[in-house]
Amino acid sequence: xxxxxxxGRLSISLRxxxxxxxxxxxxxxxxxxxxxxxLATPTQGHARQQDLATRPTQVEAHLLALPGHKxxxxxxxxxxxxxxxxxxxxxxxxxxxxDNITRAExxxxxxxxxxxxxRCIAALTKDS
Length: 128
Fold this sequence. Notes:
With 128 residues, the chain is α+β, with helices and mostly antiparallel strands. It has 3 helices and 6 strands, in the order E-E-E-E-H-E-H-E-H. A 6-stranded mixed beta sheet has the order 1-2-3-6-4-5. Helix 2 (72-86) packs parallel to helix 3 (103-127). The longest helix has 25 residues, at 103-127. The radius of gyration is 15 Å and the shape is globular. The mean pLDDT is 91.
């Protein structure tokens, strides 16, 4: 499954792979690379499906980031949001690089990543 968003010179893509009930997500843009990896999982164990609607999901997350890279917060937010909404383990690898990116463009990238996360959750919720 793939989702993309573009605005001016900026383009971000999510590639989503199912691994059993879990997800591997690649978030790339510009000169793609691996800058950060976030892993999030619900902590309520194997609760019955009917319990999930009434109990808030707690999420445990771990983060690895390469020195000098700034994708860590973005990868962490994406992994936590997806794990909480989809009740599965989610690993997000993120690497986005645009030469001479401005603060406004960074905010646009963050907004596009958030929008793509919501689109992914909506599509996967619909599929289940």
